[in-house]
Amino acid sequence: MSSDTMPSTPLSSTPRSTLRRHRERGATDRAALYAILDAGLICHLGVVADGAPVVLPTAYGREDDTLYLHGSSANGAFMAASGAQICVTVTHMDGLVAARSVFSHSVNYRSAVVFGTASVVRDEEARWHALELITDHLIPGRWAAARQPTKKEMAATAVISLPLAEASVKIRTGMPADEPEDYALDVWAGVLPIAVTFGAPLPAPELAPGTEIPAHIRDRVGA
Fold it and tell me: Which residues contact 106 (CB under 8 A, 6 or more apart)?
């Protein structure tokens, strides 16, 4: 999992990470970037493959200032990221903002956009470590509880790394920003909160009788 000892240094803006609209929603604290990445489950990887842009949803994990993504080694689009400029995004939807006017409708969100050059992780020990990070990012404690990958499974799996050196963070919170002249309209305005929750674990039908739900699954659900 990610380290809690990294210094919370500000993000350095670059031409492509500089916000153009609603700059007041930008966050330059690196801790805000970490928080958004660590709270997410799936990222979207943008890469150019065979001359065309492709966006791939994939699992990921973070350690310190490095993001790790995994995919199939047979996936040409994923492997096209090696040595190339890529873009990775993570977004959380926190609420639908219903305003009095259609124009002022919005959403409350937290988003991170990371730019940089991806590298394929080839060192075997580093690949194992990255896959453990990714697995435990989704379900903490799962790597140690499950069967470890075979050589064939490792050969079918690719890992790329991306430094968290260039990124932008944007956050919107609060109520609708209606025009004062619209306050008197007989139209409901407010926020519909959105939350991601885990349901009760559903056991696989092939489970051996008496197999109990492990603690790391109960912890993830909050039971």
Answer: 97, 99, 172, 176, 177
Note the pLDDT tens digit of each residue in 55-109.
999 999 999 999 999 999 999 999 999 999 999 999 999 999 999 999 999 999 9
pTM of the predicted structure, to 2 decimals? 0.90
Q: Measuring CA to CA, which residue among 93, 94, 97 is closest to residue 106?
A: 97
Which of 133, 152, 8 lies closest to 68 in space, CA to CA? 133
Q: By 3-state DSSP, what share of the chain in percent is helix, strand and coil, each rounded to 5?
A: 25, 35, 40
Residue with the two structure tokens 């064939």: 152
What is the CB neighbour count within 10 angstroms for residue 136? 16
Q: Which three-class secondary structure string do you get for 24-35? A: HHECCEHHHHHH
Long-range contacts of 210-218 (CB under 8 A, 24+ apart): 214/141, 214/145, 215/141, 216/139, 216/140, 216/141, 216/142, 216/145, 217/139
**How many CA atoms does the CB half-sphere of 203 hold within 13 Å?**
10
Phi/psi at 169 (5° precision): -125, 135
Q: Is 85:117 a contact under the CB 8 Å cutoff?
A: yes
List beta partners, residue 207: none
List the beta bridge partners of residue 66. Answer: 63, 163
